[in-house]
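Holo prediction. Input below; ligand is pyridoxal-5'-phosphate.
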Amino acid sequence: MKDISFETQTLHTPYEKPDAHKALAMPVYQSVACEFDTAEEMEEAFCGRSKDHFYSRITNPTVQYYEDRVRALTGAFSVTALNSGMSAISNTLLTVASAGSNIVTSPHLFGNTYSFLKNTLAALGVEARFCDLTDAGAVRSNIDANTCAIFLEVITNPQMEVADLRALSAIGQDAGVPLIADTTVVPFTVFHAREFGVDIEIVSSTKYISGGATSLGGLIIDYGTFNWPPNIKALKAWRSDTAGSEAFSTRLRREVHRNLGAYMTPQAAYMQTLGLETLQLRFTRQASTCLDLARRLRQIRGIVSVNYTGLEDNPFYDISKTQFGLLPGAMLTFDLASRRSCFSFLNNLKLIRRATNLFDNKSLILHPASTIYGTLSEELRLSMHIKQQTIRLSVGLETTDDLLSDIQQAMPAL
Ligand SMILES: *Cc1c(COP(=O)(O)O)cnc(C)c1O
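Structure of the complex:
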């Protein structure tokens, strides 16, 4: 069958080996080790010459099935499932970076990603160069011979900034630098990262994919599109003349991910495989509600502004539509008059949950400045465009009317 739809394909990826009992869902292979009939077979597996599983920190049948499904859906060269979005980010960047190299990125990043770049990588001699990724000149002037990646989030949170990925990819190609994107906020069902020049896609599968916030997880999706040149020193020893595009995934799978020990657990892989099956259904519903809500929130007294890139008058509407289509995610932000009105509003809510996380089945809300960015100085927060007046809402599977009436009743008296 050709041109099979995402929804259908996601349900029907075959197992690598048939299950002994013909189980319809991939069983959870909870076992840490797999045994071998002979010492010879064991040697083949340990030396990477056969695909047999031997130890679940490195590969596991249930986790591999999840990876295979994501590979079938994205057409990627290689997919690696880790035990959180942060471990997907840290494994990726520790694979491409080495002491003395630098990563060109934006200050608009998920809180722990920012800290990983600013503190953890800095201590290892890797410099993060924070600049405005919507400004091609700024990106070009920050790239030099030691740059090992351009790294960004495709819709930043909570600023909702969208950079032009094709433009960044072209700059990277000129300089021999890969484009690495965290696409957590727009799933690969609607956003085809490779078409926009993304070489490596990172997803916190804790969010949309897990399906109702069942488990933590992260994915590294390598499209095999980047022919790693010698200027990326971390991968120099992993290149071969015939397969320069495989250097990243080879080092990741043979060295970095084994040494960091953050592989996904079989239980999480089982739940996230189920989550994939309903991903597009849930996403379409949640994102449609989000767009509807974004339009209607503007009419509520007390809401100063609404930020969602699917609104026609949003400054990033055009680029967002080109890259992500008409439903750019199920998260929006809105501003109230002050920090005090935000706290009072949050405390008045009856239905929407005060919790961190994105894309649970339940709608979740928080005040970014006092939570995710709460321990930063106000000066640093302002440089990251985190405002005290902003509320972030992750839209769940409730109806628009129910969400709207909760928001309405919680609005502080003016
Ligand atoms: C949540 C999130 C992460 C981190 O993912 P975890 O699974 O919590 O480790 C990274 N990037 C973005 C954009 C996120 O929303």
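The chain is about 35% helix and 15% strand. That is the main takeaway for now.
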